[in-house]
Design brief:
Oligomer: single chain
Order of helices and strands: EEEEHEHEHEHH
Shape: globular
Radius of gyration: 15 Å
Helix content: 10-25%
Distance between the termini: 8 Å
Largest sheet: 7 strands, mixed
Number of strands: 7
Structural class: alpha/beta
Strand content: 15-25%
Length: about 160
Amino acid sequence: MIIAMPMSRGRLAGHFTKAPRIGFYNEYHHLVTSFDNPALAGGCSAKKAMLDLIKQQKTDVVMVQHIGERMLGKLLAAGISVSKGDSALSIEQLLDQSTDTTFRLLDASQGRTSLNHLKKGGCCGGETGGCSCGGADAKTTILSPDNKQNTAADKLNYAGFRVIN
């Protein structure tokens, strides 16, 4: 199991895409590797590069304190579990907490709404986008890909949690 954690000053970063580095830990809580955060370059393509990096590292769980709803939706759509953490906790405590499903974020609406996204006219200044981030009206959620209403039981059976071999 690989756990990705956005890092700032040796702690969990306050905001996912604004973290200076991303650390990747294994199930034994050892740091496997870390990278400078490509999202710091700004813009849709830089955030996509961050998402691609997380996918390339075969990440199972991402630990966050705060995350935007669009990025959260993309992680969930990729089958990556997202767990809510607190930067006041130590890295070891956060890694222990990463397997506790009560801290999981299950829907994109649990992320922060982008204040700048709609001001800019949606993705990349256009109505349909251009960088595949979904356009101005997209609301990504792994639980409601076809806009059906889900019950609490459906959310409980969320398939994004990967089986650990």
